[in-house]
């Protein structure tokens, strides 16, 4: 859950998000070192009167400043490609959920069950209870079992939407007539908030996403109650 004046990313709740945070820190350190070197070079050239004639025309230094950027790019590209393939990896999901975007709410269908599906609307500000977050709480949460691979099939019924939960490292476009898929594993129990991340009309800001990760036993009890109420 993000908080005011937060500088970093949200705490990771999935292995993929942990990898993304590590890669972010790795790339940020490289950028910091490059910026420091460039700043030092600029200050040195402006403040020092003397000129080193070997720097003005040197084959060796030209080789260095040609090869060094290539090495730095490889150091960034290889971890990036690794995470890219990890994010696309979907192996034997224990649960499949279909998320449909509408103007302006989400509907969820648990395809492994016969009659388990519901619409998820934002809770209006006047109906919030103490402890709930304005513009982020929904009347029905997407409940998933923790430490289990979950596949989410994402589509839309009207216009472009985007199903995004930052703490899980998940963001997938919802396109009418197209079925996209993504997957995640929650590494701990908790409630994780997201929002539609594609401008989809007047109430784009009012279609939040709430994923609640619970132990498997609690998930089975919840699914049984939802099917009985349907």
TrEMBL record:
The keyword Magnesium applies. Coiled coil: none annotated. The lineage of its organism: Eukaryota, Metazoa, Chordata, Craniata, Vertebrata. PANTHER family: CYTOCHROME C OXIDASE SUBUNIT 2, CYTOCHROME C OXIDASE, SUBUNIT II. Component of the cytochrome c oxidase, the last enzyme in the mitochondrial electron transport chain which drives oxidative phosphorylation. The respiratory chain contains 3 multisubunit complexes succinate dehydrogenase (complex II, CII), ubiquinol-cytochrome c oxidoreductase (cytochrome b-c1 complex, complex III, CIII) and cytochrome c oxidase (complex IV, CIV), that cooperate to transfer electrons derived from NADH and succinate to molecular oxygen, creating an electrochemical gradient over the inner membrane that drives transmembrane transport and the ATP synthase. The chain crosses the membrane at residues 27-51, 63-85. One of its GO terms (molecular function) is cytochrome-c oxidase activity. It comes from the Eukaryota. This is Cytochrome c oxidase subunit 2. Residues 92-225 form the Cytochrome oxidase subunit II copper A binding domain. Belongs to the cytochrome c oxidase subunit 2 family. Keywords: Copper, Electron transport, Magnesium, Membrane, Metal-binding, Mitochondrion, Mitochondrion inner membrane, Respiratory chain, Translocase, Transmembrane, Transmembrane helix, Transport. Its cofactor is Cu cation. Residues 1-91 form the Cytochrome oxidase subunit II transmembrane region profile domain. The keyword GTP-binding does not apply. GO terms for biological process: ATP synthesis coupled electron transport. The gene is COII. Its main location: mitochondrion.
